[in-house]
Write a structure and sequence with these properties.
Leu-rich_rpt; 170 residues; LRR_dom_sf; five-stranded mixed beta sheet; alpha/beta; leucine-rich repeat; Leucine-rich repeat, LRR (right-handed beta-alpha superhelix); repeat; 8 helices
């Protein structure tokens, strides 16, 4: 049995999963790709991310059926001062445009997120536009957003930092 199967079994009693996530190591949390995590699991994962400042920088939740409700629950934790994620991959998670609205809301208070992968979801140009229209505040670095909305081609969009939008003294 590999690390993935031992890390997060597909069905756990709520207390055990919550306890596991609170005591999880960074290496273990990186193994959540395709583990069957649902929106309910996102609530517990969010509690762990928001309550334990262990410095997780990369979180790959790709290929899990999170849907919009899971992203909403996860975004609540992204707003915590303890959450220091730089890269969040939500590839193939069954997301719709509503997820983009939740992510924009989280980005307003999370200054550390630099990469967001939304490829292979059901996000349309409407959702991508919401992310593109996001205006970062002071202290925000640029954000790279990966998506494949237009004609199935992969696209990378960078939301510029406020400093790069300021006129340069001449």
């Amino acid at each position: 049995m590999g690390l993935k199967e031992r890390a997060v079994p597909r069905v756990w009693p709520p207390v055990s999963l919550c306890d596991h996530l609170k005591h999880a190591t960074k290496a273990l949390l990186k193994q959540l790709r395709g583990c069957g995590l649902t929106e309910w699991g996102c609530s517990l994962l969010g509690l762990a991310l928001a309550s334990k400042p262990f410095g997780l920088r990369v979180l790959d939740l790709s290929e899990n059926p999170l849907k919009d409700e899971g992203v909403k629950r996860l975004c609540d934790s992204l707003q915590s001062k303890h959450c220091r994620l730089k890269t969040l991959s939500l590839k193939s998670c069954g997301l719709l445009d509503l997820s983009c609205r939740y992510l924009v809301s989280a980005l307003k208070s999370n200054l550390t997120l630099e990469e967001l992968d939304l490829r292979d979801n059901y996000v349309t140009s409407v959702g991508v536009k919401e992310l593109r229209d996001f205006q970062p505040g002071p202290g925000r670095r640029r954000i790279r957003i990966y998506h494949d909305v237009h004609s199935g081609e992969e696209e990378v969009y960078t939301v510029p930092s406020p400093e790069s939008c300021s006129p340069q003294p001449g």
